[in-house]
Amino acid sequence: MPAGRGADTHRVAPTLDLIVQPRVAATASLAADRLLLAEAARTQQGVLRVFELEGEVLSLGRYHLAPPPVPGGAVQRWRRHSGGRAFPAGEGFLGLSLVLSHRSAIVGDDPFALAPEQVMNRYVRGILEGLRLVGVAAFYPGRVLPGLLDRADPGGLVTAAMLTPDAVTSIHRVRGGALGVDELAESLRRGYEERLAVTFQRRDFSAEETRGLEAAAIEENSGASWLGQRVPRAELDRHGSITTQLGVLEAHFALDGDRIREIVFAGDFIANSPAIERLERELRGAPAEAGAVEAVTRAVFGRPDNFLLGAGPLRTVADAVARGLPP
After folding, report:
1. What is the dotted CATH code of the domain comprising 15-229?
2. pLDDT tens digits for 136-195?
3. How far apart (Å, rounded) are the C-alpha atoms in residues 7 and 111?
4. What's the CATH class of domain 238-322?
5. Domain ranges of the chain
6. Are 217 and 31 within 8 A, CB to CB?
7. Burial class (CB within 10 angstroms; exposed 0-12, middle 13-18, buried 19+) of 254
């Protein structure tokens, strides 16, 4: 495997924890990722968590506007920590989270050893190898199965391209049967060890961690939640959108004369949260014209720790805003 930019080729690959969770509630799964992210930052310990969510779930990306709940609806809405497209989850779908102290932790100590655009392509190799070991030649699923999205979001708030079942790799169809969560975890362990030269130690959440997860899940189900932090806002009466590599980039904003009073970006892109927060903050009060928006965008993403993927050139951000301006 070729080393990434700045990768330490003499470094001993790390040992990751392997946690397997069959049939976990969506809110508990979210709490697990939050806990593991905090632990990774504190202890530098990486984790591969393999899980299956209970019920039927619409998995929203970090930056989608959450549709309102459907009265009597069976589909749960769940927001990931990662960006990208919306996709189906829950029973019949197995998920994984690879939690690291920084984006390059498997290949080197330098957080910038891998460029942002290299990260997914590097770490997905363990997944593809693991699936190959069980007889499945997989590729990236990129869009949303239409039926589940229609039921979870009948108002069409989540803008996403549709995907038909024939356009994805179905493990059940290829193998003639489902792949259990423990079997998937074992194949992924072997795949990551083979392709990324890491090792694993199997563990479960401790009693103390479990109590913390239960409390966090209860908190998520009450009041202002992670899911609800990006929702439609009536005061943001201007809207511009543009088709991108991953799907759609949207700008929802309000004007104060010829300046931007408030703005929220939504859609299928991948970015680090501090960058989007800073972009939205620094655009407040900025002139409502494409040149000014592009200048702010380039300043924010000119920092080495910030990135925006799946949206094309940075000019796309300004183009989305421009499409929402009055004629």
Report:
1. 3.30.930.10
2. 887 654 334 445 545 655 555 566 554 455 656 778 788 888 889 999 999 999 999 999
3. 10
4. alpha beta
5. 15-229, 238-322
6. yes
7. middle
